[in-house]
Amino acid sequence: MKKHFKKLSIFMLMVILLAAGCTHRLEIKNLCTFENMSLSSLERPVSIGIIPTSADLHGQKLIKGIATELGKASANILLPYFPNSTKEVDITAKIVVKPEYRGSGWNFLINFPGFLIFTPAWNGYVYQVNYDVDVLLTDQKNNNKIDSFQIPVHLNIRHADMNRTWTEISWFEVGSIALISGIIFIQYDDSVSPLVAEKIQIPIGDYIAQEIVARVNNYGKLGVNPPISEPLNIPIVENES
Questions:
Q1: Cβ atoms 22, 124 nearer than 8 A
Q2: pTM for the whole thing?
Q3: What single string gives the DSSP state of each residue in 7-69?
Q4: Residue 196 and which of 2, 16, 142, 156 are 20 to 30 A apart at CA?
Q5: Fold for the domain defined by 2-221
Q6: Tell me: the pLDDT tens digits for 173-209?
């Protein structure tokens, strides 16, 4: 009995050590493509009310990142802003974020027979996170459209966590666990979404903010200067009474 218990304890220890070593930290392979080569500020300080629309909390986090980076570019930000608000702003920015989350057929091979060489650990599972970001800028003084644009954000993700890599215990049997799980793991892992949102909030928020800055500055150069009020010193807030 003691001998059997000892073998079982050793087996469980090996399983724990194996699982603990089979994780792959979140990696966004193409994040560098959203780096700004130069940074600009607004030529004149303006107040911007951001009207946010997102299908999920992760898209909302990206909008907050855009607001933060606009604040660094000399804008006074009100977030969220409502069209019928009693607080006046110079410009409104309606930002719509449409998310899409996709798994990959490669995850089957990564899990089986990939478990034999610990592929989930050194490569990670493959996911695609897409955000279509639509921006509409409006001059609030005369209700003129300043500009509108869309930025597609397609992210190539690698990640593996204990919720999936535990299947590498297939090393201790005939591999059926990894085979069956590999079919399931073709689907997207929802636990990846908050990690991606956290990682892209500032860099991609800055990328989109710089697009807004460029278009507002260009609007002024065309001779149609946006209405510039005295600085409102509006803090970035999450709720408006």
A1: no
A2: 0.79
A3: HHHHHHHHHHHHHHT--EEEEETTGGGG--SS----SS-EEEEEEEEESSHHHHHHHHHHHHH
A4: 16
A5: Rossmann fold (3.40.50)
A6: 445 666 666 567 789 999 999 999 999 999 999 999 9
pLDDT of residue 109: 87
217: Cβ–Cβ under 8 A, 6 or more apart, which residues? 40, 42, 43
Q: Which residue has the tokens 């933060």?
A: 68
Cα dihedral value 26, 32, 34, 35, nearest 10: 120
Q: How far apart are the first and last CA of the chain?
A: 68
Which pLDDT score, from 0 to 100, does residue 160 have? 85
CA neighbor of 130 nearest in space, from 144, 145, 146, 150:
150
CB-CB neighbours of 134 under 10 Å: 14
Please state, in angstroms and rounded to a whole number, the distance separating the CA atoms of residues 135 and 150. Answer: 6
- The helix/strand/coil state of 158 is strand
Q: Which of 2-11, 114-123, 142-151 has the lowest mean pLDDT?
A: 2-11
Six-digit token string for 28: 């966004």
pLDDT, mean of residues 158-166: 69
Neighbour tally for 120: CB within 10 Å: 27
Which tops the pLDDT comparison, 17 or 45? 45
Give the tokens for residue 217: 């500055």
